[in-house]
Every structure is written in C-alpha cells, then in structure tokens.
Design a protein that fits this description.
The protein contains four helices and 25 strands. By secondary structure, the chain is of the alpha+beta class. It has two domains: about 45-225, Chondroitinase Ac, Chain A, domain 3; about 230-335, Immunoglobulin-like (Sandwich). Strands 1, 6, 7, 8, 9, 12, 13 and 16 form an eight-stranded antiparallel sheet that branches. The protein has a five-stranded antiparallel sheet with strand order 2-3-11-15-14, with no helix packed on it. Strands 19-18-22-23-25 form a five-stranded antiparallel sheet. The longest helix has 27 residues, at about 1-30.
C-alpha cells in the first residue's frame, strides 16, 4: 500500500510540473511575425514613387505647369533660393497628387486632422499634394507662395469650408519624399492672426470651379474640411489576425458616401493586440468599411469588413478575411467601395 501511495504522489508531482511548464510556454510563447516592417514599408514606398510627377522649370522667370489631374501650378522663379542665394538656371520639380482613398491608402497618407485639443478627426479632402524643388540634387527654398489652382470637380464639387493643412509623419517632418512619413497627420495652416488659411473657390470661364491654394511651404499640403456628423460618437477597437501589429500592418476606416477621405486607427496596444481610434470621434450608426493592410510575398495583403458602428464596438479580422492584390488592384477595390 505504501508503495502505491508513493507512485501516485510521484505521478501527481510530475503531472503538475508538466502542466506548469505547458502554461509557462503558452504564456511566454513568441507570436510569429507574418510580415516584416521593412517589406511593408517597401510596398508603401513603391506606391508613392509610382505617383511622382517630374517637371523642369527655369528659375529666372515665372513658370507654369499642369499635373496629370489638371492642377495648374504657378511658381515665381524670383522667389527661389539655395543656400541664401537666388537660383538661376533650370530646377527640378517633384509633385505627388492624391485625390482618391485608394491611393491615400497604398501610400499611407490618410486624412486625419488635428483638433484644437490635440485629438484627431476625419478630414474630407479636396486633394493631397507633395511638392519639392531641387537643383543638382540640392533642395531649393521658396521665399513666397506657390499657387495651385485645383479643379473642385476632382473631389465632387466646391465647398466654401475648405482650408489648407500641412502634413507630417507620426515622428518625422515630411519635407522630402525620402522622409519616413507613414501615417501622415494634418495640421491646419494659420495666418499671422491665427486664422485658418482658406482655399478660395474661383469660377472658371466655362462654369467649372476651382480651389486656389497658396503653398507656403514645400512638403505635404492638403485642401480639407472636417467631416461633420451630429450623431453621438464612440471609440472602436479592431483586432487584427495573429502576427500583425502597428509595425507591419495598418487599419483604416472608409466612410460610406465619402470617396475623398480615409480615417486611420493610429494607436495599438501591444498587450491586447488591438488597434484603436481612441479619440471617440466615430459616429454611432455610421456605415463604413474597416480595411486591414499588410504585406505577403511582395503583394498587398488586405481585408475589408463592412460594418455599422455601435457603441464601444470591437471588430475582429481573421485569416479567412485576408486576400492579396497588386497595388493597382487594391486601389481599384478601395476606390469602388460605396
């Protein structure tokens, strides 16, 4: 009998040890990374580079050029300087223009504006622009405004509420295309009196309407107004598939009926594995699409879920929701969302 008791005791101790080890391994196990941050960044950088338009202008005169979308730029060459000296000869101009949420997504340039209290809320865009000028590879400074005339028909018609905004990355300035400007956030441009700088609406000769936007600085500029919805607001959470975080994936919101806007869930809790819009700016009852993006074998990995926002909602994205696409395929899919 004593021998039987000892055997049972040994068995129970061993079983407890095995369960304890198993629990420790479960708690401390490493979650495999599904995509590297470098590969995901490369996808977004390639999309941005594919949208660069190049022009050459004479710095000794007032020059004009028109982008692929019909935006008309006026640059006064007498206002260009390099290392404190006036520029002469030819200069190189780079322009990126983003009007649709598909290209905003693949370049990671959402339309989130900073509120006076520091929170962020969705902006409705009349066009996002990057502009820079260089000569012999060296950046050129501008000493007066560059003016862009933007067809309002590109974004559904003119709005008298549009103002100008400047964009910077979450942790970086965005003066050059080579800067790390993922997750762009927009800050409203103010004049010397602290008032917003308006994008004036101008009528064309044939009944068309334009925004007139003075670009005071190189880098990213946006023509925007805040999204307005009177319904009560809430915060939402999104759970991505295992192996994804804020370094190798993004989560966006596309509002139904707003083709020129893209919201961005800009916070991530590593303990819970949840992305969040933590400012409480999402209207309850809003119909929208939650869009998850990452990288897989050089292609875009994505998921789209159609939801109606409820109070304190958590939305789960699972492996079965995931698909792959090329840059152009994904942009078309996003642009065709209602």
């Amino acid at each position: 009998m004593k021998i039987a008791i000892d055997i049972k005791a040994v068995f129970l101790v061993a079983l407890t040890f095995m369960v304890s080890c198993s629990n420790d391994e479960s708690t401390n196990r490493e979650i495999p990374v599904r995509a590297t941050p470098e590969a995901f960044f490369a996808l977004k950088r390639a999309s941005l580079e594919n949208k660069v338009q190049n022009f050459q202008l004479n710095a000794e005169q007032t020059s004009f050029f028109t982008t692929e979308s019909g935006v008309f730029f006026v640059i006064n060459g007498n206002c260009l300087s390099k290392n404190g000296n006036s520029v002469t000869g030819m200069v190189d101009v780079q322009v990126v223009e983003l009007f649709e949420k598909g290209s905003m997504l693949t370049t990671d340039k959402p339309t989130m504006g900073t509120l006076p209290n520091g929170d962020k809320a969705l902006l409705i865009s009349g066009g996002e622009f990057f502009l820079s000028i260089s000569q012999d590879g060296e950046p050129v400074d501008e000493d007066c405004d560059i003016v862009a005339t933007i067809p309002s028909g590109l974004t559904g018609g003119a709005s008298s509420e549009m103002t100008l905004w400047s964009g910077d990355g979450r942790d970086n300035d965005c003066d050059g295309l080579d800067d790390d400007c993922d997750g762009l956030v927009w800050t409203e441009n103010l004049d010397a009196n602290g008032d917003p700088i308006e994008a004036a609406v101008q009528d064309g000769d044939n009944g068309e309407r334009f925004y007139v936007a003075p670009f005071g600085d190189f880098g990213w500029t946006n023509v925007d107004r805040f999204f307005n919805d009177p319904r009560p607001k809430t915060t939402i959470l999104v759970e991505a598939p295992e192996g994804f975080n804020d370094e190798n994936s993004r989560v966006y919101l596309s509002y139904v009926g707003e083709p020129n806007a893209l919201a961005y869930l800009d916070t991530y809790d590593a303990q819970t594995g949840l992305f969040s819009e933590h400012y409480g700016q999402i209207p309850i009852g809003l119909e929208c699409h939650v869009i998850f993006t990452s990288e897989e074998n050089g292609s875009w990995l994505y998921a789209i879920k159609s939801v109606t926002i409820t109070n304190g909602q958590t939305i789960e994205i699972v492996d079965a929701d995931l698909n792959t696409a090329s840059e152009s395929e994904l942009e078309n899919i996003i642009n065709n969302l209602p």
